[in-house]
Amino acid sequence: MNSRRTHRTDPGQATTEYALVLIGAAVIALLVVAWATDGGGAGRIGELFENVLSNVISRSESIEG
């Protein structure tokens, strides 16, 4: 007896999962924006950017000579 399994796909479930992932990402993005604009987040982001930029510049200077 030949037993084959038929695979059913449910495109509605995939669409729902995709929508939930997008909603979750949007919520996280809004929380990050709220943190960065309210309180000390903006200053911390500025400090982080300055540290990264100075690190990149110092490494490039050490490579040049």
Structural description of this entry:
It is a single chain. With 65 residues, the chain is an all-alpha fold. It has one domain (13-64). Helices cover 78% and strands 0% of the residues. It has two helices and no strands. It has helices spanning 11-37, 41-64.
Question: What distance separates the N and C termini?
Answer: 76 Å
Listing every helix as H and every strand as E from the N terminus to the C terminus, the arrangement reads HH
Taking the sheet with the most strands, its summary is: none
Strand content: under 5%
**Helical amount:** over 70%
Number of strands: 0
Based on Cα principal axes, name the global outline.
Answer: elongated
Note the total helix count: 2
Cα-atom Rg, whole angstroms? 24 Å
- Poorly predicted runs: none
Give average pLDDT, whole number.
79
Kindly name the structural category.
mainly alpha
Number of domains: 1
Lay out the secondary structure.
Layout: H1 11-37, H2 41-64
Short descriptors:
single chain, mainly alpha, 78% helix
Summarize the structure.
The protein has 2 helices and no strands. The protein is mainly alpha-helical and 65 residues long.
